[in-house]
Write a structure and sequence with these properties.
The chain is an alpha/beta fold. 40% of the residues lie in helices and 15% in strands. Helix 7 packs across helix 10, helix 8 packs across helix 11 and helix 11 runs antiparallel to helix 13.
Length: 423
Amino acid sequence: MIMKREYLSRIADKTLDAALEASGAVLVEGPKWCGKTRTAQEKAASTLFMQDPDYTASYLKAADTKPSLLLRGETPRLIDEWQMAPVLWDAVRHAVDRRGEPGQFILTGSAVPTDNAVRHTGTGRISRVLMRPMALFESLESSGEVSLKALFDGSASGEGISPLTIERLAFILARGGWPASIGEKESVALRRVYDYADAVINIDISRADGVEKSPARVRALMRSLARNVSTAATLTTVRGDAAVGEGELSEKTISSYLNALRRIFVVEDLPAWNPAMRSKTVLRTSPKRHFVDPSIAVAVLRAAPDALLRDFNTFGLLFESLCIRDLRVYAQTADGEVFYYRDKSGLEADAIIHLKDGRWGAVEVKTGTKEIETAAEHLKILRSRIDANKMREPSFLLVLTASGLAYRRADGVYIVPIGCLKD
């Protein structure tokens, strides 16, 4: 008998609860295998699995003839992979209007439907919750001694000890935050990520928009993105790096492929921050390249954990991507977004967490202790360049490290290993 895996609480649980209280329906979207369906099932009273092979044909037929039949059931009713029958979106919107009560439906999907597949946006009826792979606190690998919320509130002690070694982090980078792999033995977890990347390349990306794509070209593009992860590589750079035996990819093709990868939530670039400055400083605006989880980059590069430890430059870029993933997960509960900052002088911050209420914090990511002093000084220079009359003073300055101790320096800069952080 196969035992159902124990459910590990997700930070998105609280977000989903709040959305169900406020809206008639909630769309939970994100990459395949990140735990959307399992999280939604914890809240649902009834479930419709659109991809159940025994019933898919009949479900699709019902959607074509009378979609309201598929909405019958106890509420909240979960409709998994709803985008297989986009008409369900409008059916749910109509049912929400008619019933006039919150918490009626949960929709989950791992792909954004093609343009014009639905007639209405769902504004005011359908709330959205984005789920990503697990952050380290969710996978029980961070001690959680330093809270991002406490940093913003000014109540963080900033003290802690990370349980993670560099060797363990190298494995986590390769395994990723995929719920089904947490706790599995290393060989199984790594094999699953390779299979995930192969499925994206050979099947999923073409299904995203119904346009057949060359697996060789998709793989070349994803390898280029992996080599340029955590950098602001332009399309021209990516194009040159992705040249394959079939010839160079045009920028139009690359843009098309990237849009398809965004539709299935495989890539998630980091936008540049545009704050009010004290002087006319020219800011960089190109996004930084990131996958939704750094393990995808490791998989397409076919880089085992021990290989990452032999190439510390690549390890550093992937570690930065891991930190961005976790910061995005943690910031979501505070109604925040993550950006990066870089100006023409080369001054940068790897992450800016900006909350909707105007508070913000700046983060530098460093793998070695020798880099901490320089990172802290850069953060303080950045603070001096922001117009505090328009932007407020930063709530905190933080250097995220790979391992070691968490503490607050005499100058107020926090030094925190990623293995101590939580939401």
